[in-house]
C-alpha cells in the first residue's frame, strides 16, 4: 500500500502546502503524478461489522459553507469543556476560534501557542498534529523541528492559556528525508496517544523502513504520554504504511486510515478494533492491492487490503483522509467515511456493509481547493480545511 506523499509536488504548486500527503520522492523534487478524482475503486474486502449499524443508506445530500480563513489551516478540533474550537496552522500557530451563531469562526485574541521559530514549512514539514488529553488539561503538538525531525511536545493548560514553562518533549524521531512525515496524533480508546509516521521519505521506501520492526518509521505507534515516563517507549501497532497523512478512530474503536500512494494508487484502510494490533498494510510490497516492490522482505505474508482505492487518473494525486461522520446535522451522511484528494479537490465518501466490505461510493458534489485536512467540532460536525486558506463546514442540503 503505497502512497506518494507528494507534498513537495503541492509545495511547488502552492507555497509548499501539500501536506495532505502529496509528497516529493526525495529531497524536495516533485513527484511525477497524474491523478483522478473518482478513480477506479476496487471491491471491498472481508472484515467485521462496519462502525455504525444505524448508518443511513442512500445518496448523501450535502452542501457546504466557508466559515473562516487562516494561513494554511492544518488541524481543527474541540477541546473537552471548551465552547471554542482550536485551530492549528502549519507554520506553527495554534489559535482559539469563537463559533458564531451563524457558524462563522473568529480568532480569539492572540495565538495560544507560537512554534513558528521551532519549525518550517519546507517540503512536507511544519506543525502537523494537535491533540488534547482526555481531560482537556494538556495540549500535545506534533511537528518537525528546524532540523526536519519529528517531535511531540506537551503543554499544561491554565484555563484557556498555555502554562508558562510547561513545555515537555515527549517523543523524538529523526527523519531521513523531508517528505512522508505523517504527524497526525490523537488519543485512542485505550487512553494512549497514537501517532502516524510515514516511511521516512524519498521514493519507494529505499531502506524498507515500513517493513522493518526495528524502526517506528512507516508505522502507526502509541505512547503512554500520561504515565510517569517523560519520554515513553513507543509501541508499534500498525506496520506497512507509506504516509498515513490523516487517520481517525470511529465510535466502535475501529481505525480509518488514508494512506498516500506512490505513483498510481491512493487507498483507504479500515481496521476493526480487534484487528488493529499487528496489522500490516503491505507497503512497499504493495501499492493499494497491487503488487509493487519485491524482495528484501518487502511483502508481508498477510497484508491487509484497503477497503477502497482510486487511481491517479483525471487529476488525482494524494489522498487526504477524513473520518466517519457521526454528527446530527446531516442525517443522510451518517456513518459515511469522508475523504478528498489534494489535487482533485472533490470531497467524497464511502460506506461499508455489515461485513466490512465496500458498499457504496459517493461524490458529495463539493469542491475544496487543495483539501489538506478534515476537522470536527464537539458535536461531530465536519469541516474541510484548505491549504489555500478556507475553512469549509459541511451542511445538510436535504
Keywords:
29 strands; five-stranded antiparallel β-sheet; disordered N terminus; single chain; 1 helix; mainly beta; globular; 398 residues
Query: Which class do the helix and strand fractions yield?
Result: mainly beta
Shape: globular
**Largest sheet: number of strands, sense, barrel closure:** 5 strands, antiparallel
Number of helices: 1
Quickly describe the structure.
The protein has 1 helix and 29 strands. It has 398 residues and is mainly beta.
Q: Could you walk me through the main structural features you see in this protein, from its secondary elements to its overall organization?
A:
This protein is mostly beta strands. It has one helix and 29 strands. The protein has one helix spanning 7-13, and strands at 62-69, 73-78, 85-89, 93-99, 105-107, 113-114, 127-132, 138-144, 150-158, 161-162, 168-173, 185-187, 193-197, 219-223, 235-239, 246-249, 255-259, 265-271, 279-280, 286-287, 290-291, 308-311, 319-324, 337-341, 346-352, 358-367, 371-376, 382-386, 390-396. Strand 9 (150-158) and strand 10 (161-162) form a beta hairpin. The chain starts with 6 loop residues before the first helix and ends with a strand.
Amino acid at each position: 500500500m503505497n502512497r506518494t506523499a507528494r507534498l513537495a509536488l503541492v509545495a511547488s504548486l502552492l507555497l509548499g502546502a501539500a501536506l495532505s500527503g502529496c509528497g516529493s520522492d526525495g529531497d524536495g523534487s516533485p513527484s511525477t503524478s497524474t491523478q483522478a478524482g473518482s478513480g477506479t475503486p476496487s471491491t471491498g474486502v472481508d472484515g467485521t461489522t462496519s462502525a455504525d449499524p444505524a448508518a443511513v443508506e442512500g445518496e448523501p445530500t450535502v452542501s457546504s459553507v466557508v466559515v473562516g480563513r487562516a494561513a494554511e489551516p492544518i488541524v481543527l478540533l474541540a477541546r473537552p469543556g471548551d465552547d471554542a474550537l482550536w485551530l492549528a496552522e502549519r507554520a506553527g500557530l495554534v489559535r482559539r476560534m469563537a463559533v458564531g451563531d451563524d457558524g462563522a469562526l473568529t480568532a480569539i485574541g492572540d495565538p495560544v501557542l507560537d512554534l513558528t521559530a521551532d519549525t518550517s514549512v519546507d517540503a512536507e514539514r511544519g506543525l502537523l498534529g494537535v491533540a488534547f488529553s482526555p481531560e482537556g488539561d494538556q495540549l500535545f503538538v506534533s511537528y518537525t523541528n528546524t532540523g526536519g525531525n519529528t517531535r511531540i511536545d506537551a503543554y499544561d493548560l491554565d484555563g484557556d492559556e498555555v502554562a508558562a514553562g510547561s513545555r515537555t518533549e515527549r517523543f523524538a524521531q529523526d527523519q531521513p528525508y523531508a517528505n512522508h512525515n505523517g504527524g497526525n496524533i490523537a488519543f485512542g480508546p485505550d487512553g494512549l496517544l497514537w501517532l502516524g509516521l510515514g516511511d521516512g521519505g524519498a521514493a519507494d521506501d529505499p531502506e524498507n523502513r515500513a517493513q522493518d520492526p526495528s524502526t517506528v518509521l512507516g508505522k502507526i505507534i502509541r505512547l503512554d504520554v500520561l504515565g510517569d515516563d517523560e519520554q515513553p517507549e513507543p509501541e508499534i501497532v500498525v506496520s506497512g504504511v507509506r504516509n498515513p497523512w490523516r487517520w481517525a478512530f470511529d465510535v466502535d474503536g475501529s481505525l480509518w486510515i488514508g494512506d498516500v500512494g506512490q505513483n498510481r494508487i491512493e487507498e483507504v484502510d479500515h481496521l476493526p478494533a480487534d484487528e488493529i494490533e499487528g496489522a500490516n498494510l503491505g507497503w512497499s510490497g504493495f501499492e493499494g492491492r497491487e503488487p509493487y516492490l519485491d524482495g528484501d522482505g518487502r511483502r508481508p505474508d498477510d497484508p491487509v487490503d484497503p477497503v477502497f482505492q482510486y487511481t491517479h487518473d483525471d487529476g488525482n494525486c494524494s489522498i487526504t483522509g477524513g473520518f466517519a461522520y457521526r454528527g446530527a446535522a446531516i442525517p443522510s451522511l451518517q456513518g459515511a467515511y469522508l475523504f478528498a484528494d489534494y489535487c482533485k479537490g472533490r470531497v467524497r465518501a464511502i460506506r461499508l456493509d455489515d461485513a466490512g466490505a465496500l458498499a457504496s461510493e459517493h461524490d458529495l458534489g463539493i469542491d475544496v481547493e487543495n483539501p489538506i485536512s478534515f476537522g470536527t467540532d464537539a458535536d461531530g460536525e465536519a469541516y474541510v480545511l484548505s491549504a489555500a486558506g478556507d475553512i469549509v463546514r459541511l451542511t445538510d442540503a436535504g
